[in-house]
Write a structure and sequence with these properties.
Blueprint: E1 2-10, H1 15-27, E2 31-35, E3 38-41, E4 52-61, H2 65-78, E5 93-99, E6 104-105, E7 110-111, H3 120-130, E8 154-158
Antiparallel strand pairs: 1-4, 1-5, 2-4, 3-4, 3-8, 6-7
């Protein structure tokens, strides 16, 4: 079994419901081991849009990283994800942050996610999960105080693991 950190984000319609629906669909192909808190963050890139809700989940997945990418892409498609331009508003965005200790640098998939170390909305929820004992290779190498993390305005929004069916 392989363990992957997935980042989920949404800023359209009922944002909490979008996260719940995505988590439920991810259960169809992987076992969710841990769920971070949900954070509300200001958009970046295209700033004239609603704030995002972001979270990270740790999932156990039986296949390789490209199969996982295909599976999360199907979830995005089924939920109505459109890509009209970079950083556009979205119903759901699911990114693979880490997949075990694998590093991949291909046009189709980059692991670790190239934005992870610069995006607090990815980093902090992942550190929250890692602090529970699910410590990946990167956990002891980096600190939230390091200067390369962008200072997005970010606040807890709610959403405990039980809100996503995790007990």
């Amino acid at each position: 079994m392989n363990y992957a950190y997935l980042s989920l984000g949404t800023n359209l319609f009922d944002r909490m419901e979008n996260l719940r629906r995505a988590v439920k669909r991810i259960w169809d192909f992987g076992e969710i081991v841990a769920v971070s808190s949900v954070y509300e963050t200001q958009p970046h890139g295209f700033e004239f849009q609603r704030p995002f809700l972001n979270m990270v989940i740790l999932v156990s997945f039986p296949d390789g990283p490209f199969h996982l990418m295909d599976a999360v892409s199907r979830v995005e498609k089924v939920m109505g994800r459109k890509r009209p331009f970079p950083n556009a508003p979205r119903v759901i965005d699911i990114d693979i942050l880490f997949f075990g200790n694998i590093a991949i640098g291909e046009p189709r998939l980059t692991i670790p996610h190239r934005g992870f170390y610069r995006r607090k909305f990815m980093y902090m929820p992942a550190v929250e999960i890692a602090s529970l004992g699910f410590r990946p290779f990167w956990y002891d190498e980096f600190s939230p105080q390091d200067g390369w993390i962008r200072l997005y305005r970010m606040r807890p929004y709610g959403g405990s693991p039980s809100a996503f069916g995790i007990h």
